[in-house]
């Protein structure tokens, strides 16, 4: 793949950073579907946030870093250029402005996928936007308030969001989640419909959660995801996927698709949801997808032509809840290319 066609590293990171910071949860009326044994957040003045969390001492950071180094040394981390670009700055070192941090809070906020109908040539196409690629209304500041009020229960401590740690690894090591065969993190009562966050704090929690890497029990006998992945990157024999073949890696950044990714393999406006939708562990959460406002015939025409004007950007940004490729001319080519693959 010609990486000169991709975004510059910095803008690519900016894009992913935005993607990571968005995803969250507005009000859901299906409360009885959730079987939380942990935390259900509701802090006055904030949107309803359905979350679970675990806390861990930062004393575990050297061990976590060592685990990553071991994976690299054994060649178990993908050497794919794009993937390496995503993780090269990840570190468990404490930031210079917070060297006295004592604990990390790992949070999973339930995050729905969205469905949007595109009108095109008299037909209607329902298209999925997976969680985390659109804004459902909760900010980092909201979460910090939840932590202060409902988790630490004191305003006298520093709380800082960190985006340089490996969130999935932290979630699994803390016992918040488990790995599925598709290498995604599953949280009980939420499946993979989560957005993970990590916050450093100088508060010392009594509980220090640290577990061995746990895998979903359901995967022992379930053949679904490795049989359905369009690029065969999920393996039957272990839980490490071939990241370099995962569609998500290619359709969330600019550039041409490699020729082994066929248009028929795409199944979402960005990313890939193929191994998540049929997973039995996600069954309860699929019907909770949020329906967004329809995209009209003339808007679809302009998207496919790849010539957005300010009016179109404003309309789509509002309809698709700040779906990132709809928010700027810089990212719009992603929208055009991905939609062309879905509307044929
Ligand atoms: S589809 Fe089956 S094998 Fe794959 S993650 Fe879900 S339970 Fe595990
Ligand atoms: S996200 Fe798509 S391409 Fe990646 S492992 Fe899952 S099904 Fe395969």
Summary, kept brief:
The protein is of the alpha+beta class. The chain is built from ten helices and nine strands.
Write up what this structure looks like.
This protein has 344 residues and is α+β, with helices and mostly antiparallel strands. It has one domain (3-342). Helix content is 27%, strand content 13%. The chain contains ten helices and nine strands. The protein has helices at 9-21, 61-73, 81-87, 140-152, 167-173, 224-228, 248-251, 297-305, 310-319, 332-342, and strands spanning 51-57, 103-110, 114-120, 123-129, 159-161, 178-179, 185-186, 194-201, 290-291. The strands form three sheets. Strands 1-2-8-5 form a four-stranded antiparallel β-sheet, sandwiched between helices. Strands 4-3-9 form a three-stranded mixed β-sheet, with helices on one face. A two-stranded antiparallel sheet has the order 6-7. A hairpin with a 5-residue loop joins strand 6 (178-179) and strand 7 (185-186). It starts with 8 loop residues before the first helix and ends with a helix. The model is unreliable at 1-13 and 15-43 (pLDDT under 50). It binds iron/sulfur cluster (2 copies).
Radius of gyration: 20 Å
Unreliable residue stretches? 1-13, 15-43
Instruction: Work out the helicity level.
Output: 25-40%
Mean pLDDT, to the nearest integer, reads 85
List the secondary-structure elements in sequence, H or E. HEHHEEEHEHEEEHHEHHH
The side-by-side strand order for the widest beta sheet comes to 1-2-8-5
Alpha-beta content class: alpha+beta
Percent of residues in beta strands?
5-15%
Bound molecules: iron/sulfur cluster
